[in-house]
What we know:
single chain, mainly alpha, globular
Amino acid sequence: MFNPFNSPMIKKDLKVICRSMKFSWGLFAYEAVLVVVFLFSLSIANIERSYTGVTSNTDIYSGYVYFFPAIGITQLMIIALIVPIITASSISGERERKTMDVLMTTTTSPVNIILGKIGSAVVRVMIFVIASIPILSMSFVVGGLSWLALLEYIVLAFFLACFTGSVGIFSSSLCKKSITAIILSYVIYLGIYGVPFVVMLIEYLSNIDRQSFYISPFALFVDPVFTFIVFFVDRMSSNDVLSIFGGSHGGIWSIIRNPNLYMVISIVVQMAVTAFFVHLSAKRIGPSTK
Length: 290
């Protein structure tokens, strides 16, 4: 059974990246981007206060709560961009370095190799996410946002890293060249992120009343983008983003319309897709695969 705390692959990668100045400079650049976003959001909040004339001590910091989605969404975009580069070059990189055959002669099973590669990428990403907590905390210390939302965000970011990592590792198992694997992973991402919204658009245009959606709510389960949309809208306001699907059809939709339940089901579906990609990747690099 795979143990992430005792995986030799993850331990080796952590030792390598912790000794690398490249990782340190990457972390610095990451924090610099978040600081720029923070300062830009701060300037927008100040401009908004100057127009609205808010000067009371009780309201002057109310706009700081919006640092959370601004910085949080920026982080998610970075995760979606860097995880494919890390994971999509893992297996194909082993092939390019002619070390894949040596790796397969070890006692580590193909599934554990795949999980180790994904785990290594997830650990790197979570180091970046945790390093951003001091900046994110402005929304909670000053803006008054619940600290539970920060914990939920970190958990959702972890699942996103696992999901994107599985797609990248699957692409790497299919391709012999790293650059081809990276391109393929982005194509798969585009399909996963975009197709459910296309289904929603088609269903919207085909409905006469423009209010009833029968397929879109379930198609969007697999889309991490919509999961985070539900999360930010529900935590940042009293609005219900799921109300866009209407309520003319009952059944199971009337049960799962709760935002918290919808997010839980979305994570379960996305982790099932992650397990599916891990299984396919393990079969691709198995001893029987030529």
